[in-house]
Design goal:
Largest sheet of chain A: none
Structural class of chain B: alpha/beta
Order of helices and strands of chain A: HHHHHHHHHH
Helix content of chain B: 25-40%
Mean pLDDT of chain A: 83
Oligomer: heterodimer
Shape of chain B: globular
Structural class of chain A: mainly alpha
Distance between the termini of chain A: 24 Å
Distance between the termini of chain B: 24 Å
Radius of gyration of chain B: 26 Å
Radius of gyration of chain A: 23 Å
Strand order of the largest sheet of chain B: 6-7-8-3-9-10
Low-confidence stretches of chain B: 572-583
Strand content of chain B: 15-25%
Strand content of chain A: under 5%
Number of helices of chain B: 22
Largest interface: A-B, 30 and 47 residues
Helix content of chain A: over 70%
Low-confidence stretches of chain A: 1-11
Number of strands of chain A: 0
Mean pLDDT of chain B: 83
């Protein structure tokens, strides 16, 4: 028999993925760096508020507008709150908003897109037109409108960010489901007595998960920016809550008078987070790309 | 033939760096092609035959490199030549024809223009006369009405015509060497014959040399002077076509020869000698087949129509206006046009025809995956044609008709393990419940199809082509169906794997008492497995009868053409291994 021997180490999907991930990271140091940065962000979000040196909400007017020093690493703001503590404490809220909105849009956009690609017909037309309608607005203005109409709470920021991202998810999922619609394994599943809905959820969806996870990582950065942007213009989280967008907005007024640190450090944190998610998305794309699986 | 060969490859070693380390795809191979000579490189997938030609052309992908050896082409060292020189040589001195002609042509450029591009690029024609020259070249590759076809886009041409255009492109600059990499693999047998005849005739007229890369030993021996057999990156045999075909010296060549289906052979003869001897023919007790007068499957005047899309639209109307088409065409296309046949219990029936003849449409209708337009499909006396395809999936009847798909890779969900794939029909339609019981049934099925049980937890990409085919077969027989439709189950497999799989299918049929409807384009394979054969063309049945009778004494002209087109080297009639292609 000439049945060639398959890879010597048979392994579960997860173990193979980890092995493959390690290989990609070794090949591409930047991806490794992004993963490390991501872990730092997650860790900061989890334990940050408990380990910061000062209470992020406690004001001390005697120590207002102090530049960075040993006592206040990132300086203090106009009412004497420690900027470092506030930047660290804000990670949790910003990260949560981004994660929740991405998870929400994954369910809304992902499922709608898969259904559109798989069933075609009117499902496809309805989902397509909804996506087109959303895309017809400038996205940030649309998000502003949603929050302004529904009230500025954290839930509504999450919802607005999710809706704005809906077309991206719906289209990717639609395209991926569409090419698999007539695949041999889908026909085979029909022969095995699977109903259409089961084929969609059990056969098609697992196959487009990798590409959706990449999409989630890439839009995470955008979601954080969107949330911070809404807060910046006063439509998001309200002061005195520690949030990067508000902090930049509050600090912006002091930039001209030389107190640069109030806006700079939250801005830098925002930039690093977005940068990290984008790099991570690129890295994940390399990992799930079958072309690189030689 | 001159004493100095046109192409001389010595000790060529090609390495690929992968994440499992450096892999040698080709190891120390020697190959020489004389002027005017036609050489075939034959081997199964992974033998390194394509990599060899890529190395000669210096078009290996980034991970690959020539590690050792020399490649001399009419006195030039191709390994040392710089990229500018190579660009000149490619197309003008050496040109290549690839497997998929549609992928090789630019889909949005007229074919005539594409030929002009090549001529202008290599300064083989002046701008003023380039159109004339392109038309002339199209004429040379036997494209009828070349002046009209000059303006055609690739999608307007058939696969065979596209391949002729690709050949025209390759030969436009009158290169000295043509490398054809599986040029006819995606084509029908009759088209394959015309394309190969054309290649041989054109290259011979111009005194060109040709390297034909193929997996088909019959094709190689029919059209080539010399055959080089490769296995796992090494050349195992290199001799005149006649010698290789009549007296192969290397065991691997002998094995390949044995595995290639041809007239006068039984199914068992395809297996390597040791294995065929090890399994006596009568090990499997034939299950007594219920003797009934009623056929298992009865199809009467089956019709499937599809709406014609392009013609109904504006472009169709425009085209009619411009070309003044006399009669408006009907707005439906009949893929299957009123066919009637039956399959008895325990019988295997071959459904043969070229691509587009409606054989796959027929089988998917019988399979109840798509709905018929008209006609009757009776399965065991029940009119299953009346049940909509969407509903049929969940009926108990579903388990009695199953299918083995053409492409074993495509038909397995990449995210499911082999065990999960095999268990799927059992979980949905079977009556076995409980984790352990289902697992036990999977293992039993794996043993039945000869799949090692420890491979059950692997994913499709961790299995070989033959193993994937076995998983697909295990899934199809998991519910003990009465009728199995085999849709070219071995078309994507190497011949030696095909031999094993065909034998497996035959054994399973006998031991489980199933009936087969075997859809194929390969008459030689049908001959081995089927009791009766149905020949289809353009949605209609042209001939039907017992396999031996149809293949040895075909009544219809079309069947005769099909049989004649199978490459069949006949060394008795020809003095040297030269095809009598000149007419």
């Amino acid at each position: 028999m000439t049945d060639r021997v398959a890879p010597a180490r048979p392994s579960s999907g997860l173990a193979a993925l980890i092995r493959h991930g390690r290989y990609v990271i070794a090949e591409n140091r930047v991806t490794g760096f992004a993963f490390a940065l991501f872990l730092v962000i997650v860790l900061t979000a989890l334990i940050g508020p408990h380990v910061v040196p000062h209470d992020p909400l406690a004001s001390d007017t005697a120590a207002a507008l102090k530049p960075p020093s040993a006592a206040h690493w990132f300086g203090t703001d106009q009412i004497g709150r420690d900027v470092f503590s506030r930047v660290v404490a804000a990670t949790r809220l910003d990260f949560f908003i981004a994660l929740a909105s991405v998870a929400l849009v994954f369910f809304m956009g992902g499922l709608a897109g898969v259904a559109a690609g798989f069933f075609g017909g009117w499902t496809d037309r309805v989902v397509g037109r909804i996506a087109d309608t959303i895309m017809a607005f400038p996205l940030f203005v649309l998000a502003m409108g949603i929050v302004a109409a529904l009230g500025n709470t954290v839930q509504n920021i999450i919802l607005a960010t999710a809706i704005v991202n809906f077309p991206l998810y719906a289209r990717v999922a639609r395209a991926e489901a569409n090419v698999r619609r007539e695949a041999g394994f889908v026909l085979a599943a029909r022969l095995s007595g699977n109903g259409e809905l089961r084929i969609l959820l059990a056969q098609i969806l697992p196959n487009i998960m990798p590409i959706m996870i990449v999409q989630m990582s890439l839009t995470m950065g955008y979601a954080i920016l969107n949330a911070a942007g809404l807060s910046f213009i006063g439509l998001g989280v309200r002061p005195p809550t520690a949030e990067w967008g508000i902090m930049v907005a509050e600090g912006a007024a002091f930039m001209v008078s030389g107190e640069w640190w109030i806006a700079f450090f939250p801005g830098a944190a925002l930039m690093i987070a977005v940068f990290c998610f984008n790099l991570l998305g690129d890295g994940l794309r390399d990992i799930v790309d079958p072309q690189r699986r030689t | 033939m001159t004493s100095v060969p046109l192409l001389d490859v010595r000790d060529l070693t090609v390495e690929f760096s992968t994440r499992r380390g450096v892999v040698r795809a080709v190891e120390k191979i020697d190959l020489s092609v004389g002027r005017g000579e036609t050489v075939a490189i034959v081997g199964e997938s992974g033998s390194g035959k394509s990599v060899t030609s890529y190395a000669v052309m210096r078009i290996l992908d980034r991970a690959g490199r020539i590690a050792e050896g020399s490649v001399m082409f009419s006195g030039i060292d191709l390994r040392a030549a710089d990229e500018d020189d190579m660009r000149d040589i490619r197309g003008r001195e050496i040109s290549m024809v690839f497997q998929n002609p549609r992928a090789a042509l630019n889909p949005i450029r007229k074919i005539g223009r594409q030929i002009e591009d090549v001529l202008l690029e290599h300064v083989k024609a002046a701008r003023a006369e380039v159109t004339e020259k392109a038309v002339e070249i199209l004429d040379q590759v036997r494209i009828a009405r070349p002046r009209e076809r000059y303006h055609a886009y690739p999608f307007e041409l058939s696969g065979g015509m596209c391949q002729r255009v690709v050949i025209a492109l390759a030969l436009a600059c009158r290169p000295q060497l043509l490398i054809a990499d599986e040029p006819t693999t995606g084509l029908d047998v009759t088209t394959q014959k015309t394309v190969m005849d054309l290649v041989v005739e054109l290259t011979r007229d111009r005194g060109m040399s040709t390297i034909l890369i193929t997996h088909d030993l019959g094709l190689a021996a029919t059209y080539c002077d010399r055959v080089v057999v490769m296995e796992k990156g090494r050349v195992v045999e290199s001799a005149a076509a006649r010698t290789v075909f009549t007296a192969p010296s290397h065991p691997y060549t002998r094995k390949l020869m044995r595995a290639t289906p041809r007239p006068g052979l039984a199914l068992r003869d395809l297996l390597p000698e040791e294995e065929a001897a090890a399994v006596p023919a009568a090990t499997v007790a034939k299950l007594p087949v219920k003797d009934e007068h009623r056929p298992l499957l009865y199809v009467d005047k089956l019709v499937k129509e599809y709406p014609r899309k392009g013609l109904a639209g504006v472009s169709g109307a425009l085209k009619k206006l411009v070309r003044r088409a006399p009669a408006p065409e009907p707005d439906v296309f009949r893929a299957v046009d009123g066919i009637s046949f039956f399959v008895n219990r325990g019988e295997s029936v071959g459904l043969v025809g070229e691509s587009g003849c409606g054989k796959s449409t027929t089988s998917t209708m019988v399979m109840r995956l798509i709905d018929k337009t008209d006609g009757i499909i009776l399965f065991d006396g029940e009119d299953i044609g009346e049940i909509p395809a969407k509903r049929f999936a969940r009926l108990p009847m579903r388990r009695r008709i199953q299918m083995v798909f053409q492409d074993p890779t495509d038909s397995l969900n990449p995210r499911f393990t082999a065990a999960r794939v095999i268990a799927d029909p059992i979980l949905r339609l079977g009556d076995i419940r409980g984790r352990d019981a289902v697992r036990a049934r999977c293992e039993e099925l794996a043993r039945q199809v000869g799949l090692p049980v420890d491979l059950l937890d692997r994913f499709p990409h961790q299995l070989s082509g033959g193993q994937k085919a076995r998983v697909g077969i295990a899934r199809a027989i998991a519910l003990k169906p009465e009728l199995v439709i085999l849709d070219e189950p071995t078309a994507a497999l190497d011949v030696s794997v095909q031999a094993v799989v065909l034998n497996l299918l035959q054994e399973l049929k006998d031991s489980l008492g199933m009936s087969y409807l075997f859809v194929s384009h390969d008459l030689n394979v049908v001959r081995l497995l089927c009791d009766r054969v149905i020949v289809m063309r353009a949605g209609k049945i042209v001939e039907t009868g017992p396999t031996e009778q149809v293949l040895s004494a075909p009544q219809a002209q079309y069947t005769r053409d099909l049989i004649a087109a199978i490459p069949q080297p006949n060394f008795a009639e020809r003095p040297v291994g030269r095809a009598a292609a000149h007419s």
